[in-house]
Amino acid sequence: MTQEQAFTVKWGILSTGWIAHQFATDLAHAHNGVAYAVGSRNQESADEFAKNHGIPVAYATYEELVNDPEVDAVYIGTPHPFHKDNALLALRAGKAVLCEKPFTVNSAELEEIVSYARGQKLFLMEAMWSRFIPANVKVREWIASGVIGDVRTVKADLGFRADWNPQGRLLNPELGGGALLDVGIYPVSFASMIFGPHPEQVYSTAHIGETGVDEHFSLLLDYGGGKSAMLGGGVRLKMLEEAFIFGTEGYIVVKGTLVNPKAAELYIGGERAERFEDDRESIGYSFEAEEVGRCLEAGLTESPVIPLDESLALMKLLDLVRGQWGLRYPGE
After folding, report:
1. Contact criterion met (CB below 8 Å) for 213 and 140
2. Which of 16, 115, 237, 285 could be joined to 49 by an S-S link, Cβ 3.0–4.6 Å?
3. Which of 97, 77, 79 is CA-nearest to residue 87?
4. pLDDT, tens digit (0-9, with 9 covering 90-100), for 18-28
């Protein structure tokens, strides 16, 4: 790349599943990245994915993908029990890595990945795409301005009622199933965005279903000093998906869905003072891809918006919560 050329990340997409399709589709909206290659477990799947997304190179194995010298960064979209091995595969090939949430099944796995990436000075980031959605960026601006005063309470839920499928990803313990890891990471990360990742006290309850994983849960996180977060999630229970942030001078409502909000409202003294509307055409995954590009161009090895220490702290928090329930996955 010459100095005259714009900085562009050539992405390798590891997986051909649903979330990988979403990411590849949205890369068309990223100003500093393109989908260059895809890797699957067979050539037919890779070829079909490449054809659907206009990707020039398709590989029948993940190894071929990560060893392509033209690939700058690898997006990992496999189920989370495979994240550790997939991430290490890409890192050992010298690639920057953007790994889907939850980063791993547990904190021990994540510590191994982070240790390797830091030792080799390679870029690594959790694909917590909601952190980069414009409405959530606006929320952080409002809070930083002090307009709602001292933030005291966060309330956030994310839940849907999935069909009963004991062998599917959501309910199968062999695939790291359960609400906490699948959807729960979103409200937990949202609370961390406001208060940080280190609550002083953690209280939780969950409904463990027939397959042995949590079908829905509730969390109360106490950060001390009168600050708390009430969070919930479910994969067999539909919940409201808005989030609320209450301060001493006003409050904020994140509208639509906690994962990918399209609007946010600011209230002062009980009256709406401002409404932020997001009229983008993209799905929303392009924003996290652009963050990777910005970091790589700046020579950073992690994102200041979702740093690795925060991802580690949140994974340890999820471990603690599962420990309260007595929920362990095969192999742990």
Report:
1. no
2. 16
3. 97
4. 999 999 999 99
Q: Which long-range contacts (CB under 8 A, 24 or more apart) does 102-105 make?
A: 102/126, 102/181, 102/182, 102/185, 102/315, 102/318, 103/311, 103/315, 104/80, 104/315, 105/80, 105/81, 105/176, 105/181, 105/329, 105/332
Task: Return the structure tokens found at 309.
Answer: 């220490």
Closest CA to 126 of 138, 117, 134: 117
**Those residues with Cβ within 8 angstroms of residue 106's Cβ, 6 or more apart along the chain or in another chain:** 315, 318, 319, 329, 332
Tens-place pLDDT, residues 26-59? 999 999 999 999 999 999 999 999 999 999 999 9
- The pTM of the full predicted model, rounded to 2 decimals, is 0.95
User: For 151-168, how does the pLDDT look when each residue is reduced to its tens digit (9 = 90+)?
Assistant: 999 999 999 999 999 999
Query: Please, what sign has the CA dihedral across residues 97, 167, 16, 232?
Result: negative
Asked if 261 and 134 count as a contact pair (C-beta separation under 8 A), the reply is no
